[in-house]
Specification:
Blueprint (H helix, E strand, L loop, with lengths): L5 H15 L12 H9 L14 E6 L5 E8 L19 E2 L17 E2 L1 H5 L1 H15 L4 E8 L13 E8 L7 E2 L2 H4 L9 H9 L5 H28 L1 H4 L4 H15 L23 H15 L4 H16 L1 H4 L7 H12 L1 H4 L7 H10 L7 H4 L6 H10 L8 E3 L6 H17 L3 H14 L1 E5 L2 H13 L7 E3 L2 H11 L4 E4 L10 H8 L6 E7 L10 H8 L1 E7 L13 E7 L10 E5 L5 E3 L7 H4 E3 L3 H12 L16 E4 L22 H25 L1
InterPro entries: DNA_Adenine_Mtase, DNA_methylase_A-5, SAM-dependent_MTases_sf
Enzyme class: transferase
Keywords: Coiled coil, Endonuclease, Hydrolase, Methyltransferase, Nuclease, Restriction system, S-adenosyl-L-methionine, Transferase
Length: about 700
């Protein structure tokens, strides 16, 4: 095996930096305390508790005090520059697929974490350092560079230097973006070239396809890790009688709130939990104090703080939770896992229904308290986005949901509103002000169940909002008061189907307070064929039914087996009996669903027949745009345009579907062919008998 020339590679690049006049820092040097602390807090490259020592460190700075740390890792062997997976991503930690041999140098078991890519490859190690800085320091962006070489000349100089550079930032959700310009020369790191380099970095943004892939991967990873933690709770016999499902929800949400970073507030570390065996000074009390501080820092109102801490109080005051066992409380053990596996996934700018994932993952194992009575079934995110777009949501919309669950509709609406603002507002200050206004003033939700309400509050806090207009109340008592001060233009709802009119009472109440806009309602389909009366009839007096979309009967993947439809309304415009309503049969939407408890969404929801294109086509049809596909047309019977009565009882696709029984030419040919085949068969039988 060839000897590594790593030290010579380091020397080669340090000489380059000296030539460029760039101050560089070695393994044991400190750029500043913020970076040093971040490197010390993170796991070591091999997954342990040791410190992190990048081979070379830089700190770039432009004339506007924008500072970007640069982490450089060197190797000196063949093919050690970087290791990528099959999708071209830089590999970090993986899982060992089998046990090590008995005499192996690094003993491991199947399923243990494998850090070999980080320790053995230059770029992979540099990325490890870069992520540590983004996670544990105040920096939002970093450059990571892997350098390598294998050959020296007679003077001991590297003759085949190679380099790979990536820009990693919070705005890009920690996804490395290749900086090709730095691969062949690092001259752009010179102070005179910093402005040009920063322009290049600012243009390295994620594509829509990359963002969607990140969202899907994050959701799958979050779901898998939540289920792993819950399996641990489920398998612990001592806890089965200690924690009901509500308690598990409260443990998850409480520990997440306590562990999230907030400006001006020290992040709760696992080491801060001392596992004291004290009624007053224990890990539960420490967590509750951090929750209060966190909510205050996120500008939650006093009544919300009191409500949330009251809901969470019992579980964290439970002696079984904080009392140490073998020197460590259950709270501390759970927080260690949540801090490592869950919180990093939440601290991103992805607009996901994070807490909906928590709720769905837990309800896979145990029914949520009162879920049958209160119809706690969360709407899939691709459906909430679809409905928000059908309701013409944009940057200026005011969106409300009077039975918000975990806030999934509001999360989707916020995502669409912010993207619309980013596409239409060029001025940076104006855009920031608009996004703040969207989060703080243009979204409103009401939820009656305390255990679900707390998830919605956490969801909106994770979105960067103080949950200003999130209310725990009965919306039937509140809608008039809210309608006077909130100028709603979009109403989104998946109501509890056990409510009056199958849930259409919520729709009537909400639309009565709106003066313009659109509404999209996911509800039992038969609510539109008479079961939603008298509310459906009343709604038509002031609003127009625009569309009726039959959805797949397994839309909720086994959590509820009910035929649903989406009804779309134009608000504050009475329905005319001659208005044409667009009926669409989306019972085949391109997704294949199943409900395996231990499987991820990746397995339980599979795009097997152009699902994304199908949803885009229906959206185009209803928004008056040209569809790019033709899965749903009047010709194939999947789209019907027809009028309805004003009685509110003929809104379903099936009621307007006309099945033509007139025989076609093909039918005639088929019958003749069958007859001739039979006749020939009889003749042959007759010959054989003779």
């Amino acid at each position: 095996m060839a000897k590594s020339i790593e030290e010579k590679v380091e020397e080669y690049y340090k000489t380059k930096f000296d030539k460029y006049g760039i101050r560089h820092f070695g393994k044991t040097e400190s750029i500043n305390s913020d970076i040093s602390n971040a490197l010390s807090k993170a796991k070591s490259k091999s997954g342990g508790k040791g410190n992190n020592y990048p081979d070379i460190q830089l700190l770039l700075q432009d004339n506007h005090s924008r500072r970007i740390p640069v982490m450089i890792e060197a190797k000196g062997e063949k093919n050690k520059l970087e290791k990528l997976d099959k999708n071209g991503h830089i590999i970090q930690e993986t899982i060992w697929a089998s046990d090590s041999k008995p005499n192996a140098k690094n003993h491991h078991k199947k399923g243990d974490k494998n850090y070999s890519a980080i320790t053995k490859y230059a770029t992979n190690g540099a990325l490890h350092y870069g992520k540590a800085i983004l996670q544990y320091s105040n920096y939002d962006e970093v450059l990571i560079i892997g350098v390598n070489g294998t050959t020296l000349n007679n003077n001991g100089e590297v003759t085949d230097p190679e380099c790979k550079a990536y820009y990693v930032s919070k705005k890009n959700n920690f996804i490395p973006k290749h900086v090709e310009e730095l691969d062949t020369s690092l001259v752009l790191l010179k102070q005179d070239n910093i402005s040009r380099l920063y322009q290049i970095l600012d243009n390295l943004n994620l594509t829509e396809e990359e963002i969607e892939a990140i969202k899907a991967n994050t959701e799958n990873e979050l779901e898998a890790k939540i289920k792993a933690i819950h399996q641990r709770l489920y398998d612990d016999k001592s806890l089965k009688t200690t924690l009901n499902t509500n308690d598990k929800l409260y443990v998850f949400t409480g520990l997440i709130m306590a562990g999230l970073a907030t400006n001006g507030v020290k992040r709760l570390e696992v080491s801060d939990l001392s596992s004291n065996n004290s009624e007053t000074l224990n890990d539960g009390a420490i967590v509750l104090d951090h929750i209060k501080v966190f909510l205050t820092a996120r500008h939650a109102t006093t009544d919300k703080i009191y409500l949330i801490t009251s809901l969470l109080g019992n579980v964290f005051k439970n002696k079984t939770m904080w009392q140490p066992l073998n020197g460590e409380s259950l709270i501390k053990r759970l927080f260690a896992q949540i801090s490592q596996d869950i919180i990093p996934l939440l601290e991103s700018n992805l607009h996901l229904d994070f807490t909906g994932k928590i709720l769905n993952s837990l309800s896979d194992w145990v029914s949520i308290n009162n879920d049958k009575a209160n119809d706690v079934v969360l709407t899939p995110s691709y459906v909430t986005h679809f409905m928000a777009r059908l309701a013409r949501t944009n940057k200026d919309s005011f969106v409300w949901d009077l039975a918000m669950g975990s806030g999934g509709f509001l999360v989707s609406a916020m995502d669409i509103m912010i993207k619309d603002a980013e596409n239409k507002i060029q001025d940076k200050d104006e855009l920031e002000a608009k996004i703040t206004n969207i989060k703080e003033n243009q979204l409103l939700g009401v939820e009656i169940l305390g255990n679900i309400y707390i998830l919605a509050v956490l969801n909106m806090i994770l979105m960067g909002d103080g949950s200003t207009h999130m209310y725990r109340d009965d919306s039937h008592n509140l809608y008039t008061q809210l309608g006077k001060k909130f100028p709603a233009t979009v109403f989104l709802l998946n109501p509890p189907y056990s409510a009056e009119g199958k849930g259409f009472i919520f729709v009537q109440e909400a639309l009565s307070q709106m003066t313009e806009g659109y509404a999209a309602i996911l509800i039992q389909e038969n609510a539109g064929s008479g079961n939603g009366l008298p509310y459906t009839k009343n709604i038509l007096k002031d609003n127009t039914l625009v569309a009726s979309i039959r959805m797949p009967n397994d839309l909720f993947s086994g959590k509820a087996s009910v035929q649903t439809a989406i009804y779309v309304f134009k608000v504050a415009e009475p329905h005319d009996k001659d208005n044409l309503v667009t009926f669409i049969d989306m019972s085949e939407d391109g997704y294949t669903r199943q409900n395996r408890k231990k499987s991820s969404q990746e397995v339980n929801l599979r795009n097997t027949d152009h699902a994304k294109e199908r949803y885009a086509e229906v959206e185009a049809i209803l928004l008056g745009k040209k569809p790019q596909t033709d899965y749903y047309t009047e010709k194939n019977g999947k789209v019907i345009k027809d009028s309805i009565s004003l009685e509110g009882n003929d809104w379903t696709f099936g009621q307007h579907q006309v099945i033509d029984t007139t025989p076609t030419e093909d039918d005639f040919k088929k019958v003749v062919a069958e007859y001739l085949g039979w006749k020939v068969e009889q003749l042959l039988k007759g010959e054989n008998n003779d």
